[in-house]
Amino acid sequence: MVASRTGSGVEEDLGWALGVVFRSYVRASAAVTDGIPGGHRGYQLLTAACGTPPATQTAIASRLGIDRTVMTYLLDDMEHAGLVRRRPDPADRRTRLVVATPSGRRRLARLDDAFHTLETRILAGLPAADRTALKSLLRRLATALDAADPVADTCTAVADIAAATAAPVTRRTSPRPTR
Amino acid sequence: MVASRTGSGVEEDLGWALGVVFRSYVRASAAVTDGIPGGHRGYQLLTAACGTPPATQTAIASRLGIDRTVMTYLLDDMEHAGLVRRRPDPADRRTRLVVATPSGRRRLARLDDAFHTLETRILAGLPAADRTALKSLLRRLATALDAADPVADTCTAVADIAAATAAPVTRRTSPRPTR
DNA sequence: TATTGTTATACTCTATAACTATA
DNA sequence: TATAGTTATAGAGTATAACAATA
């Protein structure tokens, strides 16, 4: 499905393994969230909308890592589907609080079940003990990366790498010509 | 960065952890492959172009999981950057073999170094023993998923899940109206 | 003046289909 | 007839900027 690197041996290739597993998850997730506006993203929004206390659009958008304009469109669809509702914030008339409807909460419960089943199937290729170990390791690494704000962190680190390897720059600055 | 699920406890949430780790990798990878046409995808193509025997465009495209039309555009850019070259296949005049230029091979060597450093930094949040364990587990799972052709597999399985959970269907069939 | 949310616009990426040249 | 590659077109997703309402 995805090329394995031949140069340095597949056993070193974190990116390949990560990509394969992640893509499997994404595909399966897309199937599970079919019918939810925005797919997996709508599921994440629904999860946030079930949290307490209710959060504002911008708060949820930044937690989900999406643009606030995208959040507007996504919320329009989710509201139209009857899963969430925009509620005025008594404390600040600029903001709106996002809350799940009863229907949305029921749907989320079913989705959570489906995702649990999905995880089991994805991990079915490993023995039980390894499944637990992998989940634990992944979670610990994710927590560490999340806490370290690896975005800026890794980017600067990588700039160092790039400088160290000193590749001649070959930028594609011009957009692809229209054909 | 990404919402953690509150409902069923973060310790069960494979998707969250997988997403965080994968996104960290993707961001760092984007920084490393800056200057390579197509970013990480161009890097994968370059890796394939260094393999022996040379592969055809379609063969590489399917291994990389991209469309053959995308492969055309990507190859145009990579060839223009002087990293790879299209070579006629003596055995079949319809096909073209993709081979890396000497410049491309040098660039790949540097990229491999950078990726190795990148992996080390991504995994820095874990103790050494856990790093090895995680890589091993991920690789084994990826191999299992890859072999099982999980695409169709998981999709049908997930259809079962969806049927079992029996969520009322709420499709968004109409495209978003132009505004 | 800064911020929340909305809208309009443009751009990028990808998918689909049609075309050619070969087999 | 089927396949490899190319090209054109359309669509989805995303980012950017301008705007109104409120702080």
TrEMBL record, chains A, B:
GO terms for molecular function: DNA-binding transcription factor activity. It comes from the Bacteria. Residues 11-143 form the HTH marR-type domain. SMART domains: HTH_MARR. InterPro entries: HTH_MarR-typ (IPR000835), MarR/SlyA-like (IPR039422), WH-like_DNA-bd_sf (IPR036388), WH_DNA-bd_sf (IPR036390). GO terms for biological process: response to stress. Pfam families: MarR_2. This is HTH marR-type domain-containing protein. It comes from Actinocatenispora rupis. The lineage of its organism: Bacteria, Bacillati, Actinomycetota, Actinomycetes, Micromonosporales.
